[in-house]
Specification:
15% of the residues lie in helices and 42% in strands. It is of the alpha+beta class.
């Protein structure tokens, strides 16, 4: 699958694209999300899509999983997982499960809230005049709306929907790992927006290292693949945002 336009670290390719990072302290700035008090544990089971049983320091603990997707190839008994303790009062579970090491040794961030957080920080470095999260467009809430003023021309309007990718097969990322009617709805809204003069983007945050491409998971949800192809044909641009993943952080690189 093609990635749409190519975005270069040194600046926009065509005068309209994003500037991917800027130089800071002698090196390229990278946007990150940091977790506090990360704890290593061993995955035991997943009674339902919201919680898992883990073993930590010889004790069994019920923890919240910050991803309601299937993650079947990741969350297998004996897997090394990482937890964070938010310290939120009156929680049913003390810990959140945010990362897991796959059998091939690769660490995956599976926090479904992380992609939007790191993209928001990344967008803040791209020179937009306005960035609004959870923007209402049509019958959907799109993750981000942006504006950028151009001298002697109309203000450019952007819409961006963000998807986190946690499914990897043979070095390729795939999305979704479970059927997503919501994802199809967003693609249709982005397609409509292109016809109304917006630049519209679908941004895949790749939540593991060693992967640079995301393809539609047609085996799980062929309708999403069809909708993505139609959106790209209409002018929706697709971004693959590669990441560095550590137990306590996620960084767009």
């Amino acid at each position: 699958m093609e990635s749409g336009k190519s975005f270069q670290r040194t600046g926009p390719k065509d005068g309209k694209g994003f500037q991917l990072g800027h130089e800071s302290n002698g090196g390229t700035r990278i946007e990150l999300m940091k977790y506090d008090n990360i704890i290593r544990a061993t995955f035991l089971s997943r009674p339902n899509r919201f919680v898992a049983e883990v073993e930590m320091d010889g004790n069994r603990e019920t923890v919240h999983i910050k991803n309601t997707g299937r993650c079947r190839e990741l969350l297998i008994p004996g897997s090394e997982v990482y937890l964070t303790e938010p310290g939120t009062p009156n929680r049913k579970t003390r810990y959140d499960l945010v990362a897991v090491r796959k059998s091939n040794g690769v660490l995956f961030n599976i926090d479904s809230q992380a992609p939007n957080k790191v993209v928001k920080e990344w967008l803040n470095s791209q020179g937009f005049d306005r960035i609004q999260s959870e923007y209402t467009y049509g019958r959907s809430r799109i993750d981000f709306y942006m504006e950028r003023s151009r001298i002697g021309s109309e203000t450019e309007r952007y819409l961006m929907e963000v998807k986190g990718c946690t499914l990897e097969i043979d070095g390729i990322g795939y999305f979704p790992d479970a059927p997503t009617e919501r994802g199809i709805k967003h693609l249709k809204e982005l397609t409509k927006a292109v016809g109304e003069g917006y630049r519209a983007f679908l941004a895949f945050v790749i939540q593991m290292e060693g992967v640079s491409e995301v393809r539609p998971n047609n085996r799980t949800h062929p309708e999403f693949g069809k909708a993505l192809a139609e959106a790209k044909s209409a002018g929706v641009e697709v971004l693959f945002l590669k990441c560095h993943v550590a137990p306590d952080e996620l960084l767009i690189i």
